[in-house]
Amino acid sequence: MTTTIAKFAHLQIPLEDVVKATNNFHDDNIIGHGGFGPAYKGQLQRSGKSIKIAARRLDRKHGEGDIEFWTEISALSDLKHKNLVSLIGFCNEKGEKIIITTYEVNGSLQEHLNNPNLTWTQRLKISIGVARALSYLCYDEGRSYGVIHRNVNSSTILLDENWEVKLSGFEISIKQAVNRMDQVILSEPIGTIGYMDPEIEKTKGVTHKSDIYSFGVILFEILCGRRAYSKNEANRFLAPLAKYHCENETLPDIIYLDLKNQMSPQSLHIFSNLAYSCLKEQRADRPDTNNIVNELEKALEFQLSRENLVKNLKHLTIPLSHIKLATNDFSETYKICHLEGSTMYRAKLDHYDKGNHSSKRYNTVLIKRYPFGNEYYTEMDFLTEIEILTSGVKHPNIVTLLGFCIEAFEMILVVDNISNGFLGDYLDNINNKRILTWEKRLKICIDVAHALNYIHSGLDDQKMLIHRDICSYNIGLDENLGAKIVHFWRSVFMPPNHEDQALHLELVGRQNYVDPEYMNTYKVKRESDVYGFGIVLFEILFGRLANDPIYKKEGEKGLVFVARQNFYTETLEEMIDPIIKEETGENSFVLNRGPNKDSLHTFIAIAHQCVIKTQDKRPTMKVVVKELEKALFFQVSHCSNFILSMPRSNLCDNLL
């Protein structure tokens, strides 16, 4: 003990200085009570400067003593990190044992758990601060040992004037060699009720994963706005309650009410999954500190993205109450379809002219709603779609974003109405399909081709966009059957001047439409959209969706395989939609003629070029537009010539 005292002699502070700093330990200066004893705030004169301090005074009635006192001094004198409380010194005089640290003006986290002014963003930053402190304790390049804290709880997490975390309470901490951090250190169950790792009882000891368990409890305290243990609550312990709600997908029921409207759904998803994993029964299943820090930083990134979006596009925000009113709380009456996680509604929504708040009209709009916790469509996809549709992408054949709602756990886009649904709805329904003459189909193809040519080479500031999910259900049809590309959630901007280069991206898109070179190499280019569009061209030609079972018969490999194998053969012509064989042109008196051969062959040729296996051999959308317009010209000319060539009496008969 004498050696220990001598080692830390430079940190000793006379008792009379501490007494003076705390006004003789006046009750008005008490800032908390812990297992060690009461803590006092004060002003200590040190080297001619006045320092705000916290003086923790050992109360032997609490059962702690010399070992805990010297343990904390030893730990804090060796550890230096911005998220650990700073040791100023200690007093060991006249029976008093006092640990003196910097005073953190915002007190402990425990005091703010149900503080409505502590935002979700601040709570995420606090969580990251604690995680970084634990990561430092577990491993630091300058040390040969790690530290197991053993008393991580919301009262030992202090907050400075900037709400920066300062972890304290090292009186029962244990040092352990870095290469033995996963090994159990024999120990009596010790710590704070509600935070203690249940495995301590089973293994009769602790590891650094015991601190991870305590941290998981703290994450749920932060999320739920309540303490780990509340003896007056029906569910006294928070940890088992939180686990129950996570496992039953009812976590929103216990989230602190004041946080719900602030949260990024994706940040909540990451945060809650992480908190749950920290409480895993088996220590080996709990995450390590580096992973915890990374996940929390990711959650914060989503939250900040949401806040920036709302701030920068405030003029496009639509209250959730307005959308619920328009759809009668998302009634089935207004639902038009459900597509891969999103539900589409059509309704009349109040629209206020931003320049004239007294002007109000009712517009029929399309409302795209994505449910909370959807695995297929993440919040980043939602933000991507908004970013793209508000970044100067304006074209008559691209859907227009009218507004969005990101409130509570809702993610909703409001776009202009697609009154005739989606192209896929027509190709998948024999009655709807009859409306689509060959001429109408060509015009739909040309509309989409113009839109793709625009995003590939017509944007301002040398920008170029790849859609990455061209398919029949991402092509909407307006009241005149004009086509509009919708659903830009998979889309990505190419860097300027990178038109002919590829991006390496994770594979996305529907199975039957994905570019095979992209599938094999993860290289995506403008030509990947061209391939998807080629599939749509064949769908329109055959009158069947790409996933139709007919393409799988007799071991066939799908629509593209059938089209390639039968290029310009009678078999291919046999597969053409019978409806367009019976009707040509836009006029009902031109019947039973079939498509113009030149129009048909021009169409088939460009469709085949679009689905060539190699990206660099596919045509640009500029070329595709030109060929499709040529096919339309042949068809329209054919109809006109046919009408002009008819005897006048026959023409009159057909008109009657």
TrEMBL record:
The keyword Transferase applies. GO terms for molecular function: ATP binding; protein serine/threonine kinase activity; transmembrane receptor protein tyrosine kinase activity. InterPro entries: ANXUR1/2-like, Kinase-like_dom_sf, Prot_kinase_dom, Ser-Thr/Tyr_kinase_cat_dom. It comes from the Eukaryota. Residues 25-300, 330-634 form the Protein kinase domain. Pfam families: PK_Tyr_Ser-Thr. Keywords: ATP-binding, Kinase, Nucleotide-binding, Serine/threonine-protein kinase, Transferase. This is Protein kinase domain-containing protein. It comes from Helianthus annuus (Common sunflower).
